[in-house]
Amino acid sequence: MNLEKYKFSLITLYVILFIFFFSCQKKDKTYFETIAINDVKLSTPKSGSWRYNHDEKFQQFLDFQKSKKITPKPGKNTIYLQPIGEFNELQKKEIVLTKEYLRVYFQLDTKILPVLPNTLFPKSVKRVSKEGHEQVLAGYALDSILIKRKPKDAVVLMGITEKRSFSKT
After folding, report:
1. Which H, E and C letters describe 91-124, residue by residue?
2. If DSSP codes are grouped into helix, strand and coil, which group holds residue 160?
């Protein structure tokens, strides 16, 4: 066998092997196929847990896609943080860091409003948890405090309190 025929045969063999190996490759998984291993079925709720006491409809991804999104618009493009309560130095620093994070993440002007006192919460919307932490009713904070104070240029107003919040069952 002459050298030219040998080289041609060798190149042909390599081309066939190359085609064979790369044509038999598995198709790359999509992002959702890759993260599907994280989709773990929730266990049965136990007495005392949130899910045991609250029968909630779980939101599917398609539900989220169909939902109305909050989007900035000209004249409504600032994120506001509304602190409510008495904050220690560490908590004040966390509020400033939250402001900075939101500004960088959403690429929107972000401002901290002056602190409001806890006296805005009447006794009827407060309770003490089993662990001894004072909590405030989240719906009251949203519907009676924040909605009335939302600046005209706000795309969103986020209330921050040192108290924990709860929802009525």
Report:
1. HHHHHHHHHHHHHHHHCCEEEECCCECHHHCCHH
2. strand
0.85 exceeded by pTM: no
**What are the tens digits of pLDDT across the range 104-129?**
999 999 999 999 998 888 888 888 87
Q: What are phi and psi of 108, to 5 degrees?
A: -130, 150
Give the C-alpha distances (Å, rounded to integers) separating 99 from 30, 96, 160.
35, 5, 11
Burial classification of residue 38, based on how many CB atoms lie within 10 Å of its CB (0-12 exposed, 13-18 middle, 19 or more buried):
exposed
Smallest Cα–Cα separation from 108: which of 147, 151, 149, 155?
155
pLDDT tens column, 17-49: 777 666 666 677 787 777 777 777 878 887 767
